[in-house]
Write a structure and sequence with these properties.
Structural class: alpha+beta
Number of helices: 3
Length: 164
Amino acid sequence: MLFVLKSGFNFFLMTAILVQSHLTPLKILNPFSVNEFKIQTGMTDSKVDVYYPLHSVERRFPLVILLQGGKVEKSYYSDFSIHLASYGFVVAVLNTVRGMVIGDTNTDYFAEPMTINEAYESLLSESLNPSSPLYSRIDADQLGVVGHSFGGVVTLAALSEFAT
């Protein structure tokens, strides 16, 4: 699927896959207030900004993992992520620092497929932790992955790995 998503005056061309099931945005007239939480994933030590809707009733929301474009720091996506979270999604924006090719000592921001699973597992752990602000907020059966530019390519690569 190819989406053009609008956030304020910024337009992002993003490639999206639905990993487990169809995402169902909540039908709401007034968007939710949004809060932010930061975590780090395991093996790749990726830093993740998580934006989630505030809701007074216990409710689980679909998870969307956003992969950054090449050489783009995760803070670039904060306005877009807040906007998306306000419509009933938990949005996780990854910041993966690595070389463009194996053995490259010149590192920068480049997404990679294995960070999707790491982020998913880390976020589910947070959702099960009663002391976490994400406790009982993530619907584990609804996962989406979107990527901007190079992150879109990585998203498609992950889809091909998932399909095999």
